[in-house]
Design a protein that fits this description.
Radius of gyration: 15 Å
Shape: globular
CATH topology: Jelly Rolls
Structural class: mainly beta
Number of strands: 14
CATH class: Mainly Beta
Oligomer: single chain
Strand content: over 45%
CATH architecture: Sandwich
Helix content: under 10%
Largest sheet: 7 strands, antiparallel
Number of helices: 2
């Protein structure tokens, strides 16, 4: 028997997917809504901890109310190396966009769900409750980082503290056991 119990961390998973909204529910999220991307070419990186190896095969984002602009969504390792991304994708309106990606094995460890957009068009975003600066503090508390001038998602990210990313993009990674 091991000295310490093994924690599977299954509370982060639900039916074969991991979502930024699942993680942020712990922060008293007030709502998910269609809102403008914080700034053109900004990338937002939301940390996820994967307790065991999985194969990610699709990424999903929530498109906002208008069909305009382009985005890129992907996964990074803890060192800022891009593991997979959708590449530049035209944004639809008022529905989720399901993106086939190359099957990518990740885990265990810390990874980031990442998204960047070429403009300030609407996307489905989630925001922690409270008045300023509380949402920014909560976003930083869960480890969200950002990178300016990062559309399309770069091969290597230079993480910076979240400063404009007070709303978190609705990103979902669909996965299966490795």
């Amino acid at each position: 028997m091991a000295d310490f119990p093994v924690s599977a961390g299954l509370e982060e998973f639900s039916g074969g997917f991991l979502s930024t909204s699942t993680i942020l529910n712990r922060l008293s999220v007030t709502s998910s809504f269609s809102t403008a991307w914080p700034s053109a070419n900004l990338a937002i990186f939301v940390p996820i901890r994967i307790p065991f190896p999985v194969v990610v095969y699709k990424l999903v984002i929530g498109a906002g109310a208008t069909a305009a602009g382009n985005f890129d969504v992907g996964i990074y390792d803890a060192s800022g190396n891009r593991l997979v991304s959708s590449g530049a994708t035209a944004k639809g309106a008022s529905t989720e966009q399901v993106l086939d990606i190359a099957d990518t094995t990740i885990g265990p460890g810390l990874f980031y769900l990442a998204m960047s957009a070429d403009g300030t068009n609407n996307y489905v975003m989630t925001t922690p409750s409270g008045s300023s600066p509380v949402p920014l503090q909560k976003v930083r508390l869960v480890g969200v980082v950002q990178m300016a001038a990062a559309y399309v998602l770069p091969a290597t990210a230079t993480f910076a503290a979240a400063s404009t990313a007070v709303a978190i993009p609705a990103i979902n990674a669909q996965m299966r056991p490795y």
